Amino acid sequence: MGNPKSIKVFGRSGREYRVYFNPQRKQWYAACGTGKDRVRRTLGVSTRPEAEAKVKELDSPPEAPRVQAERKCWSEIQKLYLENKTSQGKASKTVSRYKAALEAFSRHLKKCGITYADEMTLTTLESYTVYRTKSEKADVKTAYTDALVIKNAFKWASRPARALMTRNPALDWETSKPVKPKRRMYTTEEVCKLETEVRPWLRPVVTILAWSGMRIGELVNLRWSDVDLKNEVIHVRVQDDWKPKGRRDRVIPMHPKVQAALRAARVGQYVISGGHGGRLKESWCLECLKQDQERLKLPEGDLHGFRRFFATTMMKAGVDTNTVREWGGWKSLETMLRYLADGTPAEGVQAMKAAVLRLAVS
User: Fold this and answer.
1) Which end of the chain is more exposed for a tag (fewer CB within 10 A), N or C?
2) How far is CA 6 from the centre of its chain?
3) Helices 305-316 and 203-212 sit at what angle, rounded to 10 degrees?
4) Residue 155 — very low, low, confident or very high, per pLDDT cuts 50/70/90?
């Protein structure tokens, strides 16, 4: 016996159903397809209008076909990540540091024979530190900071909206911060010797770093427009093409030694020049400093050690900790959002002069 007369009804997805009533079972049915693909559903209603409405509610739109995500090379993800950081306004030096870390990781992947992001495993990531420190002879701190950059890149790339990675392989990658001894601090005798006996172009660099607490990057980018010899202060300012750490302006009173070094410096856009008259370069400063320390038979120290010398010397001279922190631009949990001194630049100059007098007496 054939099916009773049926009517055509379309579901929400646009799929065609045949709706009919079976008098023997007293049931309304909806059927679609033919042969083995035929599907019949009991609607559980007693009237034709209810049956038609039920079909329209019953059928869900078909699932969109799953599009297989295109496999992404790590090099492509790396490029997009760096472009994103640049567009966010990150300092060029910061982006360069990110790039160096990611390129080191790329060398590691090449050694492992990995090209695509979805080939990486936790083992791949955990072996990076060994590769970086053993094969490339990098410092453990460098390998650690590299790992933080790489983990951030994975986190960025694995966000679903970016469709770059379907999973984040670094979720379980544990990176413990290495414990390293503190950088050594220069003694007053060592600073005096370096100020007078390193190569001539490096002498003002040593003097200004040791007696102002400036970072080497701040000195490299110091312009004459930031130097106020009349009021005896140095302005560390955010510039269009460079930003100091913390991205905040601050004022540093001039120590007499710094003032003398600045007055003797050649006139140009930037205050301090390199050995051949061009831009001062941080890496070259450090290399030359180490060479001169070896020649002078002094313990090896780095450029950052002069900041520790400045802070310790000023506090020994009686300058309070907060003032020294503000001069040097350091931050802590208490002063994270506060860089500028409560006092005026003139008060800072007086504090510096008082400190110099106390040092001279002692």
Assistant:
1) N
2) 67
3) 50
4) very high
Residue 346 is predicted with a pLDDT of: 65
**Could you tell me which of 155, 148, 154, 116 has the C-alpha nearest to residue 129?**
148
> Edge to edge, what strands does the sheet with 250-253 contain?
227-228, 233-236, 250-253
Separation of CA 240 from chain center: 19
The pair of structure tokens assigned to 125 is 């990531």
Q: How far is Cα 329 from Cα 109, in angstroms, rounded to an integer?
A: 39
| Separation CA 195–CA 159 (nearest Å) | 52
CA 9 remoteness from chain centre: 59
**Among the listed residues 200, 201, 231, 198, the one whose alpha carbon sits nearest the alpha carbon of residue 219:** 201
- Convert the chain into a string of H (helix), E (strand) and C (coil): CCCCCCEEEECCCCCEEEEEEECCCCEEEEEECCHHHCEEEECCCCCHHHHHHHHHHHCCCCCCCCCCCCCCEHHHHHHHHHHHHHHCCCCHHHHHHHHHHHHHHHHHHHHHCCCEHHHCCHHHHHCHHHHHHHHCCCCHHHHHHHHHHHHHHHHHHCCHHHCCCCCCCCCCCCCCCCCCCCCCCCCHHHHHHHHHHCCHHHHHHHHHHHHHCCCHHHHHCCEHHHEECCCCEEEECCCCCCCCCCCCCEEEECCHHHHHHHHHCCCCCECCECCCCCECCHHHHHHHHHHHHHHCCCCCCCCCHHHHHHHHHHHHCCCCHHHHHHHHCCCCCCCCCCCCCCCCHHHHHHHHHHHHHHHHHC
pLDDT tens, residue by residue, 50-88: 887 877 776 555 554 544 456 789 999 999 999 999 998
